[in-house]
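User: quick one, fold this
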Amino acid sequence: MDLQSDPIEVSDETESAIREYHTNGASVIRGILDQKWISIMREAIQRVLDHPGSASVEYTPKGEEGRYYGDFFLWRRDPDFEEFMRHSPLPAIAARVLKSNSIRFFYDQGIPSLETALCSHSLWKRQWFCRNLRKNGLGTTSGF
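Assistant:
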């Protein structure tokens, strides 16, 4: 994916997060996606949850609460995932973070409920992480 012709303006906060990534190996970049992209992808995620693909996996054991669901190669079967992969700000930001003129997309993996996935008693019990996830308003029980 050549990004030379599609420059992106980056805020000082984003530049600071990129520097933090290079210093610490991880960072959070906030405010990259506008409400249009968020709305489009919420609808796309709901479609995927309602109509699982052939590569999907239901990880939640029967009888357990919540839904830990994964699906792969969503961009191949959903036009909004493909549009997001190709034309959202994320490829350009990834290139900026990696100091590259191009990005190679490998594959996508959707895990629509982070709280269920990371806080499941039967999978990855990380109480400290789950408490902070919920405390910071990032926990969800119904998708992204």
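User: anything notable?
Assistant: The first strand starts at residue 57 and ends at 58.
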